[in-house]
Structures are given as C-alpha cells and as structure tokens.
Amino acid sequence: MNINILEVNLLGTFEVKYGRKAIAIPSRPAQSLFAYLILSAGTAHRREKLAGMLWPDSLEETARDNLRHALWRIRKALPPEPKTEYLLTDDLSITFNASAEYWLDTSALEKVGENASMDELIALLSAYQGELLPGFYDEWVALEREHLASIFEHHMARLMSLLQEQNRWLDILDWGERWIKLGQKPEPAYRALMSAHAAKGDMSKVAATYERCVKSLKEFGIEPSAQTRALYEKLKAGKERIATESIVSVAEKRKSPLKTNLPVPITSFIGREKEVEEVVKMMGKNRLVTLAGSGGVGKTRLAIQSSHKLLDKFKDGVWWIDLVGLSDISLVPQTVAKVLDVRESPGQPLTETLVGEFQTKQVLVVLDNCEHLILACAQLADRLLGGTKYLKILATSREALDILGETVWLVPSLSLPALQDSVTIKSLSKSESVRLFIERATAMQSEFRLTDQNANAVAQICRRLSGMPLAIELAAARIKMMNVDEIAKRLDDRFSLLTSGNRSALPRQQTLRAAIDWSHELLTEPEKILFRGLAVFAGSFTLEAAEATCGQIGMPRGEVLEYLGRLVDKSLVVVDAAAESRQTRYRLLETIREYALEKMKSAGQESSIRDRHLEYFRRFAEETEPHLYASEQAKWFARTEAEIDNLRAALDWSIVEDAGAENGARIQNGFQLVGVLAWYWQRSYDYDFIERLQHMLSRKTAALPSIERARALSTMGFILGTLGRNTEARPYLEEALDIARKHNDPLTLGWTLTYLAIVTRQLEEYDSSLSLLNESLALTKGLGISGKAVTGMTLGWIGDVYLGRQDEARAQKFYEESIALLRETYNSNILAFADRRLGLLMLKQGNYERATILFKESLGNNHDIGDQPGTTASLAALAKLALVQGKLTRAAQLCGIVAGRLEAMKTPMMAMDVAEFDYVTAALRSQLDAKSLEKFWMKGRSMPTERAIAFASGES
C-alpha cells in the first residue's frame, strides 16, 4: 500500500492515518460525520439531513452550526494539500470524494467475492478487529454495524465449511473460538467446534461446547436451532459426523439513496410493530392521516418509523417538516418550501407555488408538532390536498387538524406488563414498555440487568407511567441515582399527589406531568433555581452565559458550575460538542425547557431572568464589535453565529411592554445589541432582521432619542442600503444622524455618515455623498480599531464617488489608501469590498493582471470569514474578468456558480454587485451561442463550493 494515502480503520476502532502517522479528529460528532461520509463515499448528502441525523434533538440552526464545526474539525485534521480533495462540499451537500486516494478497512470486507479461496478468506478475516465503531451509539452506526456483521458472519461460516471439507480440525478450533470471542453468538461456530471435538474423539468437549451454546443463546431468550440440536444428538449417539453449513445469508445490497430528509433517531425504536403496520396501511388508503395524542406519547417516533417504511411508495420523496421551533404561523408555508427547495415565484402566494410544485409529484409530506400552529397547518394541508392529486400528508399533533378528508389515529401507549402476583423475567418479555425501560436504563448504567428480584418494581414503574415513552425514559435516567424499588416508590407517591391536585387534566397529561414533576422534585433547591434560570436560553449556551444570567438569582455565581454539572449528571442538561471557539456548550431538550419555563414563570422570575439574559447578550455584542473588524474576525463571526437563537430571543424580549419601570432600559439594551452587530446582521440575516428591527423601532418605549436608538436606526439604514432600498434607508439614517449629532458620539456619527453617503452615492447624489464621507473621515481618525474600520470603509466609498464622476485617477488613489489601511488592521471583511472595487477599475483600464490579483484576494478574504454574499460577489467579478478577456465559456461557468449560490443564499449580494452580475449575463447571452452558454452555465451551477472556489482562483 502506498504510505502517502489516507488509511482509515473503522472495525474494532476509529483510526485515521496518513503516511503511517495517526491523524486526530478530536470530537465524537466529527468522527461520526467523517465515518458516515467515507462509508458512503461518492454519495452526496444534504446538509440538513446530516445535521438532523447527527443532532436530532437540536434546533435546526444549532444543528447546522454543529455540522459546520464538525466539518471544520475534519478539514483541519486531514492532510492540507492532497492530490485530490477528500471532501466535496457546497451550500447544499457534502460528499466524500470516491476518487480520492484512500484505503478503508470495511471496503475489503465488502468486496470479497463468493469464489474467494480458503487462504484468501483467512487473510481477510485475520485483519478483522471487531464490530464497526465500538462505542458509537448513533442509530446509523447500528444499522451499518449490523450490515457489516452479517457480511462477516457469512464469510466466517463459509470459511468454517471450507475448513471442515478439508478436515482441518485444529484450524476450526482456532477460528471457532475467535468468532465467539468477538462477542457474537454464532451457532455455526458452536456446531463447527462440536464437529472438531468429535473428530478428535473428545466427547466431553462436545457436550461442554453444546452447553456453552445453550447458555449463550439463553441470554437472548432463545433456544438452539433444530439444526444445532440435531447435530449434538447425532454426535452424542456416535453417528457419522455431519458437516455444518452456513445459515447466514449475505445482507441485501444497499439500495440507491432515496429522496428524503427523514431524521435518523439516535436511540432504537422499541416495539409498536403493529402500530407501524397500521399507519402504513392507513397512508395507503387516505391522503391525510393525523397521529394524535398527548405530549410524550411517542407520536414523532412513530411517524419517523412509519415514514421510513413508506420510502419506496413515493417516487418523489418523503419529506420531514419539523415545526417544533416555529412560532410564527405565517412561516409554515416557508418552512415547507425550504425543505422541498421550492423557490417563491414573484406575484404569487407561496402556498399556490407549492400547489403547482406538487401537481404531478408523488410525495409524502410529514408535518411534525402541529399543535401550536394548528390553524396554519390545517389551512395549508387543506389547500395543498385540494389542489393536487397525488400528494399525501402525515401529521403529528396534540389535536386533530379538523379538516375534510382527515383520518385521525390516536397513538396508544406502549404495551404494559400483565397484572399478576408473581412477575418474572419471562412474563415481562413481551411488554414494550419494559423493553424500553431496560434498554434506556442499561444505557445509563451498563451493569443494570433485569432480574427476578427487580422485575416486580420495573413492572410497577411501567404501569404507573401508563406506558408513555417520555415518562419511562425519564424514570430510566434515574437508575444512576437509585435502584428500581426506590424509583417505583417515589413515582407512586408523585402520581397520587398530582392526580389529586389536577383532576380536570386528561389522564395522559396527568401521567406525563407526574413523570416530569417527579424528576424535578428530585432536585435540590439550588438545582431547581438553576434549572428554572436555564430555561431562558434558546438553543445552546456557554457556562459564562449561565453564570452571568443565573448567578445571583438565588445562588452565588461561583456555584453555577457545580449545579450545572449536577443537572448534566441527571440528564436534564445536555453537553454539546465544543465549537470552533473551543467553548463547551450546553442545552436543555425542548420538552424539558418548556417545563422549566413554566416553573420560571410560576416563581415570578421571568422578567428578572430575561432582563439579565438581555443584559448579558448586550455586553456580549459590545465585546464582540471591535473583534469583527480585526484579524480574528472569522472566529468572532463564528462565535456570534453560535448565539443566533439567544440573540433573537434577547431582541424579542427587549420589545415586550409591561408595567415594569425598567421597560425603557430594556428597549435601549435591545437597540445597543442591534447597533454594535451591524456587520453581523448584514452578512447573515438581512430579511430575518429587518422586520424585527422595524417592530422594535415602532414601540412607544423606543421613541427616546438615545444614542442606542441612533445606532439601531443606523444599522437599519445600512442594511436597507446594501439591498438597494435607498429611499427606505434614507429616513432611518437621517434620524440617526440627527440624534448622533446631539449626543456628539463620533463613532456612531462616523458610521452613520458613511452609511448615508452609501445611499446618496447609489442615488448618484455625488456632491452630497462626498460631503458626508469627508465629514466622517474627519471624525473617525484616532478612534481605535473600530475607527480604522470606518475610515477604511469611508476611503473606499470616496473612491466610489469619484469613479461615479468618471475621475479614475482620484478613485484609484482613495481605493489604494483604503486597501492599505485595511490590510494594516487585517480587516478582511471591508478589505474584500475595496479590493473588488479597485479590481473593477483596473479591469476597466485594461490592467488584467492587477485586476486578477485583487479579485482573488477579495474572494479569499470573503471565503475565509464565511461571508456568503461577498464570496458570491467576488465570483461575479471574476466572471466579468473572464468576459472582458474573451474567455466566454469560463465566464459562463463562473456565472453558473454565482446563479446557484444566489438561489441557495438567504442574504443577497449588494445592489451594485447585482448590477455587475446582470451586465455580465446580458453580455454572455449576446456573445455566446445558447448551447454553449447552457452547457457551461449548468456545469458551474452544479459545482460544490470548494471546487468552485478552486476553479475561480485558477487552481483547477
């Protein structure tokens, strides 16, 4: 084997080497992602599918962020400059490149043919180190592990048969024991061992081997097969030896990937085989089926399992729509469209666009967690089903959608153990709820076993919890703290108390609340205080954030770490993988967070805790601001992105108006959070942010002409201006300018002057724009790193004004000054813009060499900091370069890349970059024949991101 290739071992270990030296991929999620990709090399996996599969309990944005961090860790670990890229990525998918130079141990196991000789099998199986990825508990691993184990068993059984045919009894004794020691229960191995001992005349070992087989299989509650029993009886009777034969068949070859984004849960699905069959049957007869029931009954898991069974019934896919984190009813159609990759058509409601999309397609849409958006889901389902012929919908909800044609199916609890005086292991074997409890308890405490002594307590727990999956899992989690008798006793007491206190609630609601209340009551008072406080965090959070927000509310800040650790131990808080910032993050599962929120509100602490949460993220934003303009800006953009859910929650709280006297300060904190993160919002969340900020600015408590309001107004105007909405932007910026002048705040004034100058420049009011820019320049010199950012940006826009006036010499002078200053401060973000503008001027003057250098620097800087609109604009500039140089097919391919990115991005390019791109595309249509344009455009449009960047940079 060539030593300079990637060598990957996944059987019995996780080991990656290059040049015979180990490569460390540090986090378990990154290892799992890498293993999944390489095992399916050549298959493109959609990013949302990977995120949902690896982080199924996370919010969508958090899961995507985790995926980006895991991918970053993999790239960082792999050899930096391979001959062929290992990972092919774009904005939609990730693929392990099957053409790359690598060796994978599982491939050798899968490739061996049925005609392999005995020696070939021995060489292959000698290298087998054990099951796939031991210690990994992802569900996809379990499925792949089973697939590979079946192949291994087939080859082992065939080897045993070949050895028997040649009477190689010593080899059989060796290989049979080796097979058994791998932790499996292979009857063919025991049969071969019995035959070998009989051939050697040692009948005592024949009997002992048979007894070992019986005992081994008994652990699974099964008896030896008729074939094994018959062989033992014949050998014991002294009859002629009967050669063993393989009863293990090769697993079916994996089918081609189906069109779906269905989640792959990380825990196994227990029981409910009949329920799955019933749901599948109902979907065959009906177009809308709603799985209804109370929270925690298992609607979502049943829907996932049933949908997987339906994959081959819908040729155009089965699509999972997770509504759990959605609160705005108007966004339900957008959520469906995003998953199905349906683009909104101008002048047409999105729902009608969806109807058109589904007209001829055989699709199953699964709407999960509809109860809090019931009217919107009902209206959407009614319109989609009424306007299409083949579409079907499977919904989960705590109540029916209540529309014509709906079939409602109440999801039952898991089957319970029978009521009887004497409970034994055997009598519990058919109970789904018991099986679930045992599996989850064993995962919490590996030495836990169901015994005749604890069987009665386990049965009591499952009965008292009415077979509800969530309640059972919460109870099983307590096995780390107490035995099952203690769990049963406490759970029984809790039920009696809650039933007496809330007779009007539905029985299943009583049961679920009893389980969660009981889990909460097991906490000490300080743990309860912290538990309530942590409910304020949307998505994940850091220890620092928890200390700042929850410290001093009933406990000293220094004790937060201790009690957070206790909540982690009690499975109420989950530890997320470390992000790029190397900060460990924590989160509450959504159901637990909802419960904690109720406790926070009932304790009368919501306002105080949410105010501290808002205050923390205001300070977080202030700390972040200068770093967004310096050399480490990529790290700080990523750190800010990790907090997006918390930033949104903090902003939403800042506009809540109540009777509290602190309300005016609250909105000012929100404005401050907005204003100092202007560049973050602009590059990532334009549309999401504009509506939220408009609402903030309209509140009564927001009218105070504070410097915080000025910063928020300035940010609003800046974002609208970059979108080309200049007439809308101007009033915001003029009001901000008036307030900033009164407060004599030079930094706010400098930014606002420059933002307003951008708007007037785009409106071709050159004199006004130049006056504003010169005033900004005079104010911001000497104001530190943020002042240099304003100055650098201002110089670039002065160049733009002169370019608009056709004064190319002065334009170039100011562009050069801007670039020099921004390079000095390592401000890649704003530098990328100045590079691009000077590059266009060089292109106009025929200096193609300098234009190329500047465009590539702009592309590299934007790509390095993850600025998607900027990266796309740089690609468009390189397309113009190719056009001007007469490289029409290259220009067409680059335009295809840009077009594909524009469709996928949630934030557009700046208006002036859009104008440049439109110019190039129009020129191509007039200069290149339609067939060639289509060919190279589509070639570029389908290129993964990294290949597209390399192509644009001239590296491939």
Structure description:
The chain is 61% helix and 6% strand. With 956 residues, it is mainly α. The protein folds into 8 domains: 6-111, Arc Repressor Mutant, subunit A, CATH 1.10.10; 120-236, Tetratricopeptide repeat domain (Serine Threonine Protein Phosphatase 5, Tetratricopeptide repeat, Alpha Horseshoe); 273-410, Rossmann fold (3-Layer(aba) Sandwich); 425-521, no CATH class; 525-531 and 541-602, Winged helix-like DNA-binding domain superfamily/Winged helix DNA-binding domain (Arc Repressor Mutant, subunit A, Orthogonal Bundle), CATH 1.10.10.10; 605-704; 706-826, Serine Threonine Protein Phosphatase 5, Tetratricopeptide repeat (Alpha Horseshoe); 862-952, no CATH class. It has a 5-stranded parallel sheet with strand order 9-10-11-8-12, with helices on both faces. A hairpin with an 8-residue loop joins strand 14 (574-576) and strand 15 (585-587). It starts with 5 loop residues before the first strand and ends with a helix.
